[in-house]
From TrEMBL:
It comes from the Bacteria. Its main location: cytoplasm. Residues 26-187 form the Fructose-1-6-bisphosphatase class I N-terminal domain. It is found in: Cytoplasm. Coiled coil: none annotated. Its EC number is 3.1.3.11. It comes from Pseudooceanicola batsensis (strain ATCC BAA-863 / DSM 15984 / KCTC 12145 / HTCC2597) (Oceanicola batsensis). The lineage of its organism: Bacteria, Pseudomonadati, Pseudomonadota, Alphaproteobacteria, Rhodobacterales. This is Fructose-1,6-bisphosphatase class 1. One of its GO terms (cellular component) is cytosol. Substrate binds at residues 114-117, 202. Mg(2+) 2 binds at residues 111, 114, 274.
Length: 326
């Protein structure tokens, strides 16, 4: 029997994930993320039976429209992380950092619900999280080199509910077993293939792209007749979690570049909630992640909600994209 949100039983010995696979100090944090992810996956599986999950309810500080499920997910993770050792909680859906436990040792940043344009159409959505050791202030805890992360993960709510997580020693993959309510290890070391057969970019922005991005996409489109000498297929889901999971599984490249529009001068994706954690997961699986040229893990966020151009995936392709920027 899994945990039931309406009927919590502190005596229930059932854990949402095998603690032996999680560094001891992070167990309460990861357990809370998994338990809440499992609860959220049940809400998502109900779709319209759980209410108007995709209804617009406001705007967040990033200027994104907030959907009912964005707010619900944020409230669930915030509540679940209380008492787990998280001192600072930063969320895409909140303007400022919350202090959950003044004595806690961790700072956790999350995109509680990624891919919110896909809520109403039964396409994979997700949760992304990033963990740092708490520093002397909220700002100092998150505005630091991405390489300081001690853990990062995503939960994908799709045909399967999955957890990919890294603690800096490879990227592990877990699948939520609906019978037990627990995440079960399915791969202890994900390996992102070095070569790619697929690329991903929002092609509706083509007219705004920079010359190097245009050159790369043209190379992909030229297929076996062009410089690449091989055909490349194209995919765009519109959920970073789904895109990342596909690329971790079978290779590929993803680009959300800076473009000529003033509001896309740093692309669309947020450094603290999306780019840094995905870069950590990708690199731990043997892939590469850059802002076009520089490794994301070498970069420092200057503002909580800042955006960063993001390129990641198979090493050969990410290197080629950097070369085209050279
Ligand atoms: P969110 O739903 O958390 O705001 O994130 C949406 C992001 C990301 O998931 C995806 O890669 C990208 O926005 C999709 O962008 P387009 O709207 O340009 O397709
Ligand atoms: Mn959003
Ligand atoms: Mn997102
Ligand atoms: Mn989101």
């Amino acid at each position: 029997m899994g945990h039931n949100r309406d009927d919590p039983n502190p005596e229930d010995p059932m854990l949402a994930i095998d603690p032996a696979l999680i560094p001891e100090h992070l167990r309460p944090v990861i357990e809370a993320m998994c338990r809440t992810g499992a609860e959220l996956s049940r809400v998502i599986a109900k779709g319209p039976l759980a209410g108007k999950l995709g209804a617009g309810v406001g705007e967040n500080s990033d200027g994104d429209q907030q959907k009912a499920l964005d707010v619900m997910a944020d409230e669930m993770f915030e509540a679940a992380l209380r008492g787990t050792g998280v001192r600072y909680y930063a969320s895409e859906e909140q303007e400022t950092v919350l202090t959950l436990d003044p004595e806690g040792g961790y700072a956790l940043a999350t995109d509680p619900l990624d891919g919110s344009s896909n809520i109403d159409v039964n396409v994979t959505i997700g949760t992304i999280f990033s963990v740092f050791a708490a520093a002397e202030s909220a700002e100092a805890s998150f505005l630091r080199p991405a390489s300081d992360q001690i853990a990062a993960g995503y939960i994908a709510y799709g045909p399967q509910t999955l957890l990919a997580v890294t603690f800096g020693a490879g990227t592990m993959l877990f699948v939520l077993d609906p019978d037990s309510g627990s995440f079960v290890l399915s791969e202890d070391r994900m390996a992102l293939p070095e070569a790619a057969k697929e690329f991903s970019i929002n092609a509706s922005n083509r007219r705004h792209w920079t010359a190097p991005v245009r050159a790369y996409v043209e190379e992909c489109e030229a297929g076996r007749e062009g410089a690449k000498g091989k055909d490349m297929n194209f995919r765009w889901v519109g959920s970073l979690v789904a895109e990342t999971h596909r690329i971790l599984t079978r290779g590929g490249t993803f680009l959300y570049p800076a473009d000529a529009r003033p509001s896309y001068g740093n692309g669309r994706l947020r450094m603290v909630y999306e780019v840094a954690p995905m870069a950590f997961l990708v690199e731990q699986a043997g892939g590469k992640a850059t802002d076009g040229t520089r490794p994301i893990l070498s970069l420092t966020a200057e503002e909580l909600h800042e955006r960063r151009p993001f390129v990641f995936g198979s090493a050969e392709e990410v290197d080629r994209i950097a070369e085209l920027h050279g």
